[in-house]
Give the backbone structure.
Amino acid sequence: MKADAVIVGSGIVGMSLAISLSRQNKKVIIIEKNFSKNLNNNRFYALSEKTRTFFENINIWNNIKNVNSLREMHLYYRNFENRNMINFRRDDIQKKNIGYIAQSKEIMKALINEIEKDNNINLYDNCLIEKIDNHDMEIELSTDDKKNIISRYLFSCEGSKSNIKKIFGIKNIIDDYASKAMVFNIEHEKSNRNSAIQIFLETGPVAFLPISAYRSSMVISIKNRFGDREMFNNNNICSYLEKITNNNFGVIKADSKIITFNLVGFDSETYKHENIIFVGDSAHSVHPLAGMGLNLGISDVSAIDNTFANKKQIFEDKSFFSDYARNQKIINKQARQQLKLIEKAYSIENDIANKVINITMKSIEKSDFLKDGIIKYANNNISFF
Ligand SMILES: Cc1cc2nc3c(=O)[nH]c(=O)nc-3n(C[C@H](O)[C@H](O)[C@H](O)COP(=O)(O)OP(=O)(O)OC[C@H]3O[C@@H](n4cnc5c(N)ncnc54)[C@H](O)[C@@H]3O)c2cc1C
């Protein structure tokens, strides 16, 4: 079998990349170990305006069902009181959006519908690569179901546990946040008024993403030194959420399994190894406090797409993806460092730091100019450019 590009991993990043490459008239093969697991992912993501624009360009945005355009976003510091908050509002007249919430499986469905119509893309499910030979200008692959594939490039979109990186000994530069995350969905008695909420607590940031009026998706980060507190037990977590929101949501109940895992950020030491290119979580992972991971992965795909606009080079050239590898590595590293800085600043526990943060938040809350700037920065995937 011959292809221009083999993509390993049919997550949202891998599938978006496949559609984007097909639009450049490239023959694409996707290899996936377990597609149905992906398609049934209940997780909800915060999506930026930049991601929306890219999804519009590849013709899937309007086919993603139940996308929720956020009406408001509130940031609280230490407790759920009005004097410690910054409010962001959608402006329908000036068409300023503050972000979207969409379910992973709805994004996946829109992507697979597009892929099924596309003759340039073949997806092989329940398939694993067994052998990779990196030649000078092509890559040769054999799979566990005896396929032999020759391709110009191999894209690793395998998520944070990339097997290809293991095979080629490519290391990650690790950023251990010394925290764990609890991720689950809740039902609440009172409406969330379509507002996203982030409360920066001493124990770590707690995020509420509105799914519908009476349901929200939770991401609770807990620093390891607080991890064994009773309130973070699965049985107590909902009453803890009621308490930290001053019962503004009324009774809260978990309506999905609570998943707990350690939070680790990283940058791949390289985004390109000979004919292999790393994209999305395979190349980088950031703290979930701003809901940026997937958005940064889609930015990678968009950067790969932009590479084709450079007419000085052709797809076959060895250095065709060198700029992608260099530039995205810098951009994603900066994003990871900025998120870490925000997380660190909000977790300092002393009177001076608390006063400085309170004064800063009050000044931001009073300034539409600063708030506009922050929304632009977030919608551009925490980048000014
Ligand atoms: C708590 C938490 C909350 C988050 N919230 C947000 C948010 O609100 N907004 C946001 O933008 N991001 C968020 N993220 C980040 C987001 O989840 C990831 O960045 C995103 O899912 C990465 O997508 P991906 O396609 O690169 O990888 P994945 O979704 O991990 O997909 C990888 C695919 O590769 C396949 N695969 C793996 N290995 C192999 C192999 N050897 N052979 C074949 N196939 C393979 C897998 O089966 C899978 O289909 C959050 C992350 C966390 C931890």
Q: What stands out?
A: The first helix runs from residue 12 to 22.
